[in-house]
Amino acid sequence: MAQIFGDFRENLPTDHEFLILGFSPSSIPIQQRWRNNGLSADFVADYLATFFSASETDSQAQARQAEIKSAVSYIANELLENAMKFNDETVRYSIRFGMHLINDAEHTIVLVATNSISLETFTRFKAYVQEFLASDPDELYMRQLELTAESIEAGSAGLGLLTMRTDYEAKLGWKFDAVENEPTAIAVTTMVQLPV
Known about the structure:
Elements: E1 3-6, E2 17-23, H1 30-49, H2 59-86, E3 95-102, E4 108-118, H3 119-134, H4 137-150, H5 159-167, E5 171-179, E6 182-195
Antiparallel strand pairs: 1-5, 2-3, 3-4, 4-6, 5-6
Helix pairs in contact: 1-2, 4-5
């Protein structure tokens, strides 16, 4: 049974621009994936920027286009890196990444990454998501920075997700669901909604 947290849109409209990419995380070592993640994120950002074209004489529109492109590239890269880093490699489950441009009242870019995680990772990550959603973003950001400074093992400690929330004012949501025929794995979908 699916569990949903945060700002997660279950049914995205079908009459919009979208792009779906699939990745086989076990095809090459993860160290080689980092470059591919950056290239994929830049591709998605370039693709999306074409929908916000600006004339050479409109500097304000050019700045807006560059800002959108930069935000999408950063968020897409973070989502792809997290999906690759935390993917359960014991399960044959593709990583899926999607970009949707929804022309609703505020024009929204929706970026979505889906990967599998182990039951152990699910328990820890679900607790992090609940803390993330319940905490003041600025306080949690400072606390995570302090944790990272104190311990190398802490890694980035969710700073990418916090940056999306604080710097880009993005809405984040998660969906946890069973992986068919894999009782020891959970599919996690991370959704980032960016108003433009």
